[in-house]
Write a structure and sequence with these properties.
CATH architecture: 3-Layer(aba) Sandwich
Number of strands: 7
Distance between the termini: 15 Å
Largest sheet: 7 strands, mixed
CATH superfamily: Gcn5-related N-acetyltransferase (GNAT)
CATH class: Alpha Beta
Number of domains: 1
Helix content: 10-25%
Strand order of the largest sheet: 1-2-3-4-5-7-6
Strand content: 25-35%
Shape: globular
Structural class: alpha+beta
Radius of gyration: 17 Å
Order of helices and strands: EHEEEHEHEHE
Length: 174
């Protein structure tokens, strides 16, 4: 999908200043995360509801692709379109910065949020999780309907986590 043809217009949503500490708080991420990197390389969006920061997401551009990460909404503010709004803003911002594609990974809970913006499912991603038991990884695979060929019997990794890859909104090359 062309970034210029994102399914939703840039939403009008109350935004908080893109402060890193507030992003970490709303995203429920540990303080000090990525302290050693240039935080100006990341593009943060924080949405507010009634003046309180309740949803956030982060983007990072590399070689014309915008990776969208950690989009989330606090539990009490869910089901109001804020996750979709943050995702749409990050995608529109990426197009404005000159990115040609946007990509992300989705949990089952977030699939419809990302599809509403225009992302499409490109398949599953297997992720090694150190120390995860074979039994737990089998439970995760069965919940995510991975094919049996990815089971611990045939996969060289003991702990495997699965998530959908909802990826690649494309903008035509000029």
């Amino acid at each position: 999908m062309a970034l210029a043809d994102i399914r939703v217009a840039p939403p009008e949503v109350e935004l908080a200043p893109p402060e890193w500490s507030e992003y970490l708080r709303v995203a429920e991420l540990p303080r000090g995360l990525l302290d050693d990197v240039d935080q100006r390389a990341f593009h943060v969006r924080i949405a507010r509801l009634a003046g309180a920061s309740v949803a956030s997401g982060m983007a990072f551009d590399l070689d014309g692709d915008c990776g969208i990460y950690n989009v989330g909404t606090l539990v009490h503010a869910r089901r109001r379109g804020l996750g979709t709004a943050v995702t749409a803003l990050l995608a529109h911002d990426a197009a404005a910065r000159g990115c040609h594609t946007a990509s992300l990974q989705a949990t089952v809970m977030a699939e419809r949020v990302y599809a509403a913006v225009g992302f499409r499912d490109l398949g599953r991603i297997l992720e090694y999780v150190p120390g995860q038991s074979t039994r737990r990884s089998s439970q995760m695979r069965s919940r995510s309907s991975l094919p049996s060929l990815c089971g611990p019997e045939s996969h060289p990794l003991v702990g495997v986590n699965a998530s959908r890859s909802i990826a690649r909104i494309r903008r035509p090359s000029r």
